[in-house]
Amino acid sequence: MDQPRQLIDKLEETSRLTKEEWIVLIGGQNEDLAQYLFEKARRLQTQYFGNRIYIRGLIEFTNYCKNDCYYCGIRRSNRQTERYRLTKEQIMECCKDGYRLGFRTFVLQGGEDGCFTQEKLEDLVYTIKADYPDCAITLSLGERSKESYEGLFRAGADRYLLRHETADEAHYQTLHPKELSVKKRKQCLWDLKKIGYQTGTGFMVGSPGQTPEHLAKDLLFIRELEPHMVGIGPFIPHHETPFAGEPGGTVEQTLFLIGLLRVMLPKLLLPATTALGTIDPRGREKGILAGANVVMPNLSPTSVRKKYELYDNKICTGDEAAECRSCLNRRMEKIGYRLVIDRGDYGVKCLED
Ligand code: 5AD
Ligand code: FES
Q1: Where are the alpha helices (DSSP H) in the chain?
Q2: Residue whose CA is at the smallest distance from ligand 2 atom 3
Q3: With CB atoms 3.0 to 4.6 Å apart as the test, which of 94, 184, 305, 340 could cross-link to 299 if both were Cys?
């Protein structure tokens, strides 16, 4: 059996490892190996993206959710969360602010909220697209029917984010109530890709019960799906959920997996997530230095920020969009990167600007 370092070389050369090899590599994580991995990841990141970091403006437009995932702070059983929905006017206001600040992608994210009907959602997408034809629209609305995804695509949505959370069926079942299944989740992802969305998936690192074998399966699934984007962040316990007392994921393991993803699929859009920034004050910078190339600051009105609390101590809940934008600018420049005004589509070689 090859040593972890050789497995990283093999991953770069062939873009594939067997499940057993993944388990050895993930289990071999230590500081030295991580440095070796991050150097390679940064080489690829620079080769494909230079020092450019894409920004996405996140609009968390509803925290109503019919689901009851055990890890999530806005699960329907959490009666302590004050629920809100943004109006169309409020959402358009977020886009206006965002556009002025240089955002060219808007991410509409929400719980699975039946109040936003297909018709309302299509109207929203259509209106944003009409007002901002040079911007990409990303949706993150959970599981829906193929017909619904098709309708939203026709209305103008470009991308869709739906994390698979864990590719292992038994593990999936321990994180979710029985109405949800990983089979359905994966089917949604295949549907989204087929329809033509730039598709993002992802998982939590260090979720309760997660083993190196589960992570190996996540990486195999991602290799098979070949998504355009993969969002990963540490699991962080939320005090009003069944997992309140579980340990959270670590910065080190999250960074290691970011590095592995960059080496496996070099062109991938890989965010340094808010969750990573929450467990470490320099988490997002470290994410970029491990191979990430996207940041997704929040454009939601500050009045609702605190209510979209998927996990405890989420950062930036008191900061205006403009503050986050300049904060991130500073943070990225300090480590030799820069935020660009660009849609940041997958596979488009961004010209030197
Ligand atoms: N810790 C970290 N990430 C979480 N998410 C939901 N709850 C938590 C938590 N407690 C992630 C899920 C979901 C995304 C929107 O947020 O992966 O897909
Ligand atoms: Fe929000 Fe720094 S990114 S305050």
Answers
A1: 4-14, 19-27, 31-49, 88-100, 118-131, 146-154, 169-175, 182-195, 212-225, 251-264, 274-279, 283-289, 302-305, 321-334
A2: 324
A3: 94
Ligand 2 atom having least distance to the Cα of 316: 1
Given a cut of 90, whether residue 1 has pLDDT beyond it is no
Q: Amino acid identity, residue 76?
A: R
Cα(39) to centroid of ligand 1, in Å? Answer: 28
Q: Which atom of ligand 1 is nearest to the CA of 310?
A: 7
| CA–CA distance, 158 with 136 (Å, rounded to integer) | 6
- 109, 310, 313, best to mutate for ligand 1 pocket (most atoms within 8 Å of CB): 310
Please identify which residue in the block is written with the tokens 């904060």. Answer: 327
pLDDT tens for each residue of 271-283 = 999 999 999 999 9
The confidence score (pLDDT) of residue 353 equals: 47
- Cα distance between residue 324 and residue 117, in whole Å: 31
